[in-house]
């Protein structure tokens, strides 16, 4: 500082928005931030010298889907891709599954119901990704990739016969199987 410049020790969480003042306790740095492209907050304790995290906690992650399954439990999915089963047991500190892996650019929003127990949630922060929820089976929430190459969806998905139809920014409509991500038929583009 005496030479008019700061020495950078470490860089982490690039692109995140820090939402509260940093706090230093001995060599532990506490910080609260909104990861890039996410709706929720993370609170972390890190080593001030190295930047290595001692612990992290996801907070304020919005709920994107609630569903009462046939066995009378409530399934909850957050916008960050955390899956919780709520029943008569105490609420747990960890999700039942986390296909979003706590990574940035996760905003699974606005479920589109394919049928009585399956829904698709597009990732608003990364339109090439979607989450597939199923009220049955072992793997109840999966994150997959939309099969449109470099194109991006320009509208909300529409459910058609258990499949998903999307309009893309390069013009065509595509239909894909949400279980596999595979295209069904050829993309449709109206003639000019």
Commentary on this structure:
By secondary structure, the chain is an all-beta fold. The chain is 0% helix and 41% strand. It contains no helices and 15 strands. The protein has strands spanning 17-18, 23-25, 28-34, 41-47, 53-59, 63-68, 74-78, 83-86, 108-115, 118-123, 129-134, 141-145, 158-160, 163-167, 173-176. Strands 1, 2, 3, 4 and 5 form a five-stranded antiparallel β-sheet that branches. β3 and β4 form a beta hairpin. The protein is flat, with a radius of gyration of 20 Å. The model has no long low-confidence stretch (mean pLDDT 84).
List keywords for this structure.
about 0% helix, 4-stranded antiparallel β-sheet, about 190 residues, mainly beta, flat, single chain, 5-stranded antiparallel β-sheet
Describe the structure concisely for a colleague.
The chain has 192 residues and is mostly beta strands.
């Amino acid at each position: 500082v005496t030479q008019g410049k700061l020495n950078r020790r470490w860089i982490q969480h690039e692109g995140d928005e820090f939402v509260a003042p940093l706090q230093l306790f001995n060599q532990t740095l506490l910080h609260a931030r909104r990861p890039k492209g996410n709706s929720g907050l993370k609170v972390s304790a890190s080593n001030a010298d190295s930047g290595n995290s001692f612990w992290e906690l996801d907070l304020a992650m919005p709920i994107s889907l609630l569903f009462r399954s046939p066995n009378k439990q409530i399934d909850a999915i957050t916008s960050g891709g955390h899956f919780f089963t709520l029943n008569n047991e105490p609420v747990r500190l960890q999700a039942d599954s986390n296909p979003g892996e706590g990574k940035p650019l996760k905003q699974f929003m606005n479920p589109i119901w394919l049928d009585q127990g399956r829904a698709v949630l597009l990732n608003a922060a990364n339109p090439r990704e979607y989450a597939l929820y199923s009220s049955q089976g072992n793997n109840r929430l999966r994150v997959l990739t939309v099969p449109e190459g470099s194109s991006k969806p320009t509208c909300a998905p529409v459910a058609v016969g258990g499949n998903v139809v999307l309009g893309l920014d390069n013009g065509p409509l595509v239909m894909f199987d949400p279980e596999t991500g595979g295209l069904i038929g050829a993309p449709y583009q109206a003639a000019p």
